[in-house]
Specification:
Blueprint: E1 18-20, E2 24-25, H1 28-38, H2 43-46, H3 48-53, H4 63-75, E3 84-89, E4 92-94, E5 103-115, E6 121-131, E7 137-141, E8 144-148
Antiparallel strand pairs: 1-5, 2-5, 3-8, 4-7, 5-6, 6-7, 6-8
Length: about 150
């Protein structure tokens, strides 16, 4: 494997293999930039009084923002660096709220790894559990990726 391919091949991504990402705190700047860029004009995200009236206890982060930060944490592990070929799909479930000031990390477990129909690549599925600073599961997603094979 050449030096620019730091990531794992699909053969190295065996079922049951786990990794844990670094942690990252969700900031007010993250929230404002994300909802502005994405057009998330829902009052739950813009209006703290409205969010409080709905029972939330802080500045609520959209699930899409939490997923985006979580996926960035996974990519920062370099496990896919140079070996990731395509993001093919996923299921996503929101388990609980994430607020500005919460710190999240991702626990990744490979649940399927098989050769693809084309040589030189494989299909890898994982279960990615996003946890807050208290270890509570706040989001779970199951990405399916096309990953380079050895050689």
């Amino acid at each position: 494997m050449s030096d620019h391919l730091l990531g794992m091949t699909y053969e190295e991504m065996t079922v049951g293999r786990r990794l844990k990402t670094a942690r990252r705190t969700v900031t007010e700047t993250d929230l404002v930039n994300f909802i502005t860029l994405g057009g998330f004009t829902e009052p739950l995200f813009w209006d703290a009084t409205h969010a409080a009236s709905a029972g939330y206890t802080g500045r609520l982060a959209p699930g899409a923002l939490v997923y985006t930060i979580a996926e960035g944490l996974v990519l920062q592990t370099n496990v896919l660096h140079g070996t990731g070929l395509a993001f093919m799909g996923m299921e996503l479930e929101i388990k609980g709220p994430v607020y500005v000031g919460d710190t999240i990390s991702v626990d990744v477990e490979i649940t399927e790894s098989r050769p693809s129909s084309k040589p030189g690549r494989g299909v890898v599925t994982s279960r990615n559990r996003v946890l807050n600073q208290r270890g509570e599961e706040v989001l779970v997603y199951t990405p399916v990726r096309l990953i380079r094979a050895r050689g």
